[in-house]
Records
---
Amino acid sequence: MYKILIIEDEAPARKKLQRYIAQACNSFKIVKEIETVSDLKVLLSKTQDFDLIFSDIELRDGNVFEVYKDVILHCPIIFATAYNEFFINAFEANGIAYLLKPYSFEQFSNAWNKFIRLKGDSAPNYNELIGTINNFIKEGQENNVEYKDQFAIKSAKGIYFLKVDSIVCFQADQGIIFAFDETNKRHTMPQKVFNEIELLLDPKKFFKINRSEIVHRKFIDKLERYNKNILSVFLNSDRKILKTSQNKTSDFNSWLGI
């Protein structure tokens, strides 16, 4: 029986993992489900009695690599995330597969079968792991990703089209996603999962500054220090003021080239 730890802060994603695991394996036990970085840190300080970890990366209180960099892990990890920039971090943290949300059962099954193969080996096949990571990165660089240039928005009168270039920022609030345009008008987006919005946007133009807000580079007017690790972001001639999360500030500065 395989003992499995799930690290995921979104209930639908946890249910999907559970369903896929049950389809792929007849004998397993989910020993724990973790939703925060702080809980993960506590758990790994007490036990690593797992055969496999399924791990998201960005949780509600930070990034899991804050924990993984400080512990010696004794089991492999299959990462399941909406972020495509952590391949190397994943490999360094015992990652054997990288599932990019939304992933299919076929993709999950390939990752699971790799775990089974490695579990049967006397030693991990690191050449295979390195090749997998390198190929995944190469494929991502070579794919010509088409990002949205407009969104179809439903209204009481019908459907209208919101141009992406006119969107100042996106905000998620109690399960509803809003886009704010340059006139500060609010538009209700058809997407229900915030990470889906991020995947549809050009990462050179848009940046997710915290768990529920994405900003458009061209509408950033100025930044001010809110506290030691958080920035106030002034958008659209100061009509909107948002704040970075602590774990996003450094990456945000790098994205801006400052």
Note: The CA atoms of residues 118 and 248 lie 34 Å apart.
---
Amino acid sequence: MVLQAYIDDSGDDDVFALAGFISSAEAWAKFSKEWENALGWGVLGNSGSKRFKMAEMAYLDERMERVPAFFNIISSHVLCAISFVYRKEDLVRAKQRIRLSDGRPINWGFMDNQYMLAFKHLMDLFHNGREHDLKGIIASGEKIDFIFDEQSEKRQVIAGWDEYMNTRPAAVRRLYGSLPKFEDDEDFLPLQAADFWAWWIRKWHADRINPEDSVLDFGRVKIKGAKFPRLRLWADEDHLTNNLLGVLREAHQDCAVIDLKNFSVSGAL
């Protein structure tokens, strides 16, 4: 069984999220057939065909009433949901708490890119924690291929992948599947399901609604019961500070934490 994770992003002025679903290639094939049949309820896309984009569905009340039908298709085929989310204000404060020992300005590199920062956190946290958090759902040692919606950061991810993998512990490195792929969501329909989940994860976090509650709040419609296991990953100011420090130190930058508050390096992710 080949497992595939389809992931998309959603962001606003306050929150950024990467989220999606994991299932087998066979299940995704069945999902795609059902989803394609339901796209008559969607919105006309760039190619002239109907598509599902949650932001477009949220634009009109009559479209929102169709959302549960799409959710039911997702629920019938996915193995689990995963997400990573952070608040942009926490990232700003985290950067303010770090300085180089010689006082030079910090070149944050890829950490100034909200997508790249979330990508690294998602990859790190998921592969470090899946053996515990998804035990019994995903077999121990099972590799997962990650497919993302098309992004301008695609070249940066692919160019740095080998270097990134070389910094992972051997026990964790074996859990990664093939090189991440970036595809068009009008050709790869599971990415439209990922768009659905990323939009709602971002909105729930922005509205401070707990998506782990027994009732999923889809605006005009509320659905009871957990339809599938959900792995929710996040980083607050302390976690972001610690992760930023780790990246700087990997780049051999001599840095220190200022304004310590309750921060502790021993509390690393």
Note: The chain has ten helices and twelve strands.
---
Amino acid sequence: MKKISLKVGEGKHHVCLHTVFCGKDAILSIAGGDVPHIGAVAVAVPRKSLTGDGSHSASVSVICIAGHKEDELARSIALRLSALWFCNVTVSAGIHINDVEKEDIVILRKNIEELVENIIDKVKDEMH
């Protein structure tokens, strides 16, 4: 199994991405902040797009732990990577900052997007 770990940000804004490739499929864990945890898990399955243009899409199922808000984050990343890599993708996400403020959310979103772009760049030529 191939494993890739990436990190972006410092202090309470750090976010880690651990990826394990199981054959063609991918498992991603995204955690960070003051209290890394599991807040939501999304499993995406690739399919041909319903547009009929030959492009790829994906369907996703999400489980969110009560009181957590990482469901949309896990969902969007799983959908994007499953369609892009045309494989099953599981994303676990859990990021918590104590006494979070709006600026913290903006920084975390930027750091998470950078992580996703970095993993895409790292495996670009390997997934086909």
Note: The domain at 2-123 is CATH 3.30.230 (Ribosomal Protein S5; domain 2).
---
Amino acid sequence: MSRKVIKPVLSAAEAVRSVKAGSRVMVGGFNYGGIPYSLVEALVEAGTGDLTLISNDTAYEDVGHGRLVARGQVKKVIASHVGLNKKTGKLFHDGLMELELCPQGTFVERIRAAGFGLGGFLTPTGVGTVVEEGKEVLEVEGRKYILELPLRADVAFVRAHKADRRGNLTYFGTNRNFNPAMAMAADYVVAEVDSVVEVGEIDPNDVVTPGILIDALVVKEDLYYAART
């Protein structure tokens, strides 16, 4: 077996060294589910700042990647929902952080477009609203569409259930959410998993994200993820 296909298994602290100041970082998850908590916590501890955070939401100010926002490590958020994290709104309204809200379906399609190498796509979602401001609007067969552009990151942190040493990933339930799409749309992808097994122990029919997309693996650490007081 060629060693070239074996993915490195890193600690979370080692893995987040791939994130430099000013990086665009995708983080999987939807509310509490599917967040790569160990990786996010390590990034919080590293203190890396000036980040553009690309995530479905900003969790809560004391949970997951919401802590990156609350700690002032994020200069811009691109998300579809931020109402559960009061710090996100405050920083935006105080002019201390940029915020780009994107309809959820459009958000994930922009990520998919980047993953598949597309130049963008047309959607009627947001036509005639603030969503179309600053974007090109095209008319096709009498109907208006917004041209939405791909959304790509320097680094993606995704959460999966299990990996083999080649980086093939399986997911568990709704924790899957945005993670497979994000794994396709970054220059460097780290997958946080419950366990890493030997090649051949995962049925190929169960693989959702192929290992060719994954650069490194991290086994989740025993952290306390609940909201902190």
Note: Residues 11 and 218 are 6 Å apart (CA to CA).
